[in-house]
Hints:
The protein is 37% helix and 20% strand.
Amino acid sequence: MEPTKSKVPLEAVQLYNVFIHGGMSRRDFMGGLQKFAIGGLTAAALMEALMPNYAAAQQVAPTDNRIKASYETIPSPNGNGYIRGYLVRPISADTRNATPTKLPGVIVVHENRGLNPHIEDVARRFAMANFMAFAPDGLTSVGGFPGDDYQGGQLFGKVNGAKMTEDMVAAALWLKNRADCTGKITATGFCYGGGIANTLAVRLGADLAAAAPFYGGVPQAADVAKIKAAILVHHGELDTRTAATWPAYHTALDAAGVPNEGHVYPGAVHGFHCDATPERYNKAAADFAWNRTVEWFNQYARA
Length: 303
């Protein structure tokens, strides 16, 4: 697997990852980019190259006639009262019968910026793979994703983390119990969302069939024994902090008798799956990870 070539220095990409995770202000980020502004590249050009381009990365249009999408608001009594999310189903599954065909479900959880257009697109991609997908917005209680990733990150820090977790649990159980769901659900997510996919595996036990966290935080060692879902883990080789968690997690999952598999992709950085941020995106790694995830969910949620 060849790593994706980039015109932006790796150090600038890593600086961006610190910035989007709240580790520095916008002013400090721009100041840090100045040292890489060489060879005709300005700090402003570097900033533009690193920030997401949702339109260019969209794979399935919201108006695609092969899917049915809607925004749903569901109760979350143990969380922030309610949570809004994006529900997508393939239309082809419903055209042969008067009642909707039951499908396995996927919870798709965003990074620490809220339900942005990229995560909605990922939900639509799962619909194209013949799942029903629900992507909850953890920023619902503060007005939802504001349309800008930086502002979304600022809002993210204002939401009570424990209550946001309860919102995600409520979203998963709502999906599982829908009449048009088979009752078998899976979870995936990216960074914060990867950690939530692992958390849902702990919290839901046998109510979750499988999880595929992308570069997410791992559960406490004592909680791994609660997991019943099959776990598929994805990390980037250059995302050393999160990738380093895999060996111990793998050992704990094995000890608990949990089916599991992990992949550390050569040359890939944190956020490698996100084609909306082309300087982090690694197409080879992203394609491998996506295909493995769909196969994993088919194996464990359609049996």
